[in-house]
């Protein structure tokens, strides 16, 4: 081939073509050669990823080296440029064939450029250029192969170190040990991991390892923080004097090169790894590439170790939850079972199995219709299907089993996946036989109470009315002596009080039975009803002074009997607790939307501790009341004010109380003319 090229060159020289030195041509046409080579490389990589900006990183230096070797011959010493070029291509994921193709394209571009410039190399120049290029190619390929072999061996050792799935506590130290043993110039190395807002040294080997472990830094602090912030490798030439170094172990006297690499899992930053040397100011490109590659692999191992730790923790939590669930299912008296979409038993406790009459183990994997009584299958399978298809629960379905005196209540709820799909259903069954018996007893008690209410409402009122009528007739007799007339008055007072007590008891029973107090609203004059009620009260208490005042428009829609009952209870309360020589004042005032009723008496104020439960039924007198008051007031059932609050509430009104020693006690009742204004006692 060379003889042919020599003849071609000789022919060009004979035909007038200019001759030149190959080294001079390369220096003069370096830019054109590099442009031709870059276009050729892009065409060579058609269909592959676009070439990055570092495509020409070492080529200008390699061309200069090629020219120097042509000038000075084979004794010219090669620089580290071919090694660096090989490592950059290895780091970029090139294979050996692609590296060789780069140089083959370079050789072709040089020759094509010579033809394009009509340049004829001097005799022997072309051969020297070929020899020099072969030396560079050999050096690059050898460095590439050695670097790849070194990386593969280190990665294999890292894989061996992680084969037994070590914990997060031991794995980083194993990986760092492999690193230090793979690079002779490395004296120490460490992993600094992100933990919340801090960086913590979690693994260290080599010099100062014991002092480094557990040291914590802020995320943006020093050299370590700079590596994480830039998310790029970073080199220090003299760590012991560099102001960016804050880790005490990196400030050791005599420490030179430090090389840090971020640990990235996609966009997630796990931390950084660094290696140090006392002998080198800068780590070689093969060592740096090895460290970067091992850091990437270490990141993958760390992520896997974290995932395994989380998986183990999740498995342990699940096992613990299942154990707790099994213990709960075994101890609960409720029957509990879980069925899949095909109505096969997935889980069942002993209580549910006892209802079916089979062991829990016999249920698992079997269909509901195979294990349940025939009568239950027809009843429950449609409900099961509806719950699974619609996802709607079914609650409180009562059933019995032939031959079993017990009564059961069942509920069914869908079992959902996180995305709301229905996996199956859960069933709970409870024995409600005791409750059914209690309901029967309660119903009998209610029936008895209703009969008792009928006795109080009718059978007692009739003789009481007869007594009251007879006493009234006696008061009209002129033959009664003063002691006899006082006795008749006491009879009339007692019958009136008994009538109010019976009414209060009947109303209390209605409220407790849930029906509420019946209210028949009708047009009425509030003042007239109150005045008539007071006239009746004056007859039963002639020795007490009752004062009445009315003002404004007092017409509206209320129940006159209930209004009279409220006023009677409030006045009776005022007479009972007020001073006997002072009047009880009743005022009625018509306002825009309501009528306000006030009942006032003087005397001992209501005790503060009684105020919160003043309207409660059957309330007791405060312990500080004088003995004579207790004896007098215990005759009341304590229902009067409770009935007042219920009647006023049924009318949509409210009751207010003000009581003190200077101004006495005043009950204020607000009666809305309509039900549009709601209130509470």
UniProtKB/TrEMBL annotation:
Pfam family, one: PAS_4
Example GO molecular function: ATP binding
Catalyses which reaction(s): ATP + protein L-histidine = ADP + protein N-phospho-L-histidine
EC number(s) on file: 2.7.13.3
Location of this chain's protein in the cell: Membrane
Membrane topology designation: Multi-pass membrane protein
Database matches in InterPro entries: BphY/WalK/GraS-like (IPR050351), GAF (IPR003018), GAF-like_dom_sf (IPR029016), HATPase_C_sf (IPR036890), HATPase_dom (IPR003594), His_kinase_dom (IPR005467), HisK_dim/P_dom (IPR003661), HisK_dim/P_sf (IPR036097)
Keyword Membrane among record annotations: yes
The entry's keywords: ATP-binding, Kinase, Membrane, Nucleotide-binding, Phosphoprotein, Transferase, Transmembrane, Transmembrane helix, Two-component regulatory system
GO cellular component: membrane
Source domain of life: Bacteria
All residue ranges annotated as the Histidine kinase domain in the record: 455-675
UniProt signal peptide: none
Enzyme class: transferase
Transmembrane parts of this sequence: none
Predominant location category: membrane
Presence of the UniProt keyword Nucleotide-binding in the record: yes
BP terms from Gene Ontology: osmosensory signaling via phosphorelay pathway
NCBIfam families: sensory_box (TIGR00229)
Protein name: histidine kinase
Organism in which the protein naturally occurs: Myxococcus virescens
Lineage: Bacteria, Pseudomonadati, Myxococcota, Myxococcia, Myxococcales
